[in-house]
């Protein structure tokens, strides 16, 4: 498991955006880690993220309505799982497909997957956001410097 970036040390002026590539930020997020520093343990509960990273102090929620993007990620992930589930089910039972089994199992999947993927969708959204707007990683360092 990779060690998290400890952040700026005295005399080091390297910005956060230069410490990782776009791919590394997305990979960290998909693995449920902080996209900025790579630290894990971001969950406050089963469904919620902590307000900030325990390692680098970066605040996750950028503005009011920020998590709408996470809802889009969640919707895409759940529907992608559902399409894959249907494709595997149809191919496994072809030519006599058990449509009732696929219907009820698909409904159960669509009812439970959003709860299981909710927190993950938030970390992925943060990772996608900073992959395409890396300057956001340097926008608040209050947790690191101790200032407000």
Provide a descriptive summary of the structure in words.
- The two termini are 32 Å apart.
- 24% of the residues are buried.
- The protein is mainly alpha-helical and 148 residues long.
- It is built from four helices and no strands.
- The chain has one domain.
- Helix content is 49%, strand content 0%.
In a nutshell, what does this entry contain?
The protein is mainly α. It has four helices and no strands. The protein has helices at residues 22-30, 68-93, 99-132, 142-145.
Largest sheet: none
- Helix count, DSSP H or I runs of 4 or more residues: 4
Number of domains: 1
Fraction of residues in helix:
40-55%
Share in β-strands: under 5%
General shape: elongated
Separation of the first and last Cα atoms: 32 Å
Find the count of extended strands (DSSP E, 2+ residues).
Answer: 0
Low-confidence stretches: 141-148
Task: Provide the structure class.
Answer: mainly alpha
Order of helices and strands: HHHH
**Rg over alpha carbons:** 19 Å
Key descriptive features of the protein:
single chain; 148 residues; mainly alpha; 0% strand; disordered C terminus
List the helices and strands and how they pair.
Elements lengths: L21 H9 L37 H26 L5 H34 L9 H4 L3
Helix pairs in contact: 1-3, 2-3
């Amino acid at each position: 498991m990779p060690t998290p970036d400890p952040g700026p040390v005295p005399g080091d002026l390297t910005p956060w955006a230069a410490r990782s590539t776009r791919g590394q930020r997305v990979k960290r997020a998909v693995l449920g880690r902080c996209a900025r520093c790579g630290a894990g343990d971001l969950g406050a509960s089963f469904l919620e993220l902590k307000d900030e990273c325990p390692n680098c102090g970066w605040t996750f929620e950028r503005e009011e309505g920020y998590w709408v993007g996470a809802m889009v990620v969640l919707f895409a992930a759940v529907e992608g799982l559902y399409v894959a589930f249907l494709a595997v089910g149809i191919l496994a039972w072809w030519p006599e497909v058990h449509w009732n089994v696929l219907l009820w199992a698909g409904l159960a999947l669509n009812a439970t997957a959003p709860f299981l993927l909710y927190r993950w969708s938030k970390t992925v959204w943060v990772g996608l956001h900073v992959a395409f707007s890396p300057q956001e990683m340097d926008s608040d360092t209050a947790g690191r410097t101790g200032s407000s």
